[in-house]
Amino acid sequence: MSLLSHHDAQRFMTTYQQVAIALSVLKGKPIPVDPPLVLARAREQLQEIPALLNQAVAQMKGRGIRADPEVVEALGQMRLGEWVHLKDLKSGSVLIDIQGQEAYCVTGLTQPLGKITGRGACLLETALCPFAGRIVCDGIVIPRCDLGSNLRRNTNDLYRNLKAAGRLHQSPTTAALWNQPVRRQPATG
Fold it and tell me: Quick check: helix, strand or coil at residue 170?
């Protein structure tokens, strides 16, 4: 199964968690004891107001905490959304965007999506970002519903069609998610 190296996974998780804590501090909110809740809240805030990332990094720097620049770049390109998780392959977990237009072969941080969800094909919410030359899932996964047999069969057909059309992306360099302009809001003091 395609996973990040231990070193890259640790870099990603450490900076991601520190950015999430910094966002809680900036918002004047108590830091939840549950790490996944901290991260889920952070990615929603970053999706809504991307400029918060710069503020969080500045807040970290003020506390003497180093932010890995490659991870910060990845978090700045994070895309939170609902995806159809079809299956796990040796090359990664197959996700299809909710519109059925693109498919992604996603690398896990420490385990494949199927192990995280404990399910087969399902609709889920998660965030993807380009990191270490791969399309990475942020590891926070919220399952929405399982796919029934007919929907699973139709989704497998869609996957095969997308793959044949060259719309199964294993690299961020070919993925429409990162080749379209993103609306950025200016940082506020």
Answer: coil
